[in-house]
Amino acid sequence: MFDIGASEIFVIGVVALIVIGPERLPRVAKTLGHLFGRLQRYVSEVKSDINREIELEELRALKATMQDAARSIEQTVNSQVNYIDSEVKQAGAEVQKQVETAVSPVTGIQLIPPAMPASEPPASSAEEATPAKSDAADMQAGKPSVNDKDKPA
Question: How far is 28 from 103, CA to CA, in rounded Å?
């Protein structure tokens, strides 16, 4: 702060001893020490306040920068969402038109319901299985089958 060397301090001390006197010099030195300490504390407080204000300004500038970046990202995302939404709506409208054109010629066709419900088994398959079993039993017993009667011997 001050550019004072050791020889200059020695000269100031000798002058103070002559002017103030040996009785009051310790009290004056103590008072000057307290005042110098207060001055140093005041200067350090001012420095720390200035540093805090500078950091606060930097943080405010950073906050503003981040908010601008967030707004630009939000605008970009919103524009992309709006673009995609319009494309999806346009594609949906095109699909709806294609469905309407594909369905309109089919409106005059009526479907005929099936004659028999699908849950009932056909009767002919059950009847075919029964004679085969009786023919096999007749052959084992040595009886001629119905088909054998029709054949010439």
Answer: 110
Distances (CA, A) of 132 to 20, 122, 125, 140: 147, 18, 12, 13
pTM: 0.41
Report CA 52 to chain centroid distance, whole Å: 36
Mention every residue, 6+ apart, whose C-beta is less than 8 A from residue 133.
none
pLDDT in tens, 96-138: 888 888 765 555 566 666 666 555 555 554 444 455 455 555 5
**Residue whose token pair is 């005929």:** 112
Is it the case that residue 67 has pLDDT exceeding 60? yes
Backbone angles phi, psi at 151, to 5 degrees: -85, 140
Phi, psi of 19 (to 5 degrees): -75, -50
Structure letter (DSSP) for residue 22: T
Burial class (CB in 10 A: 0-12, 13-18, 19+), 25: middle
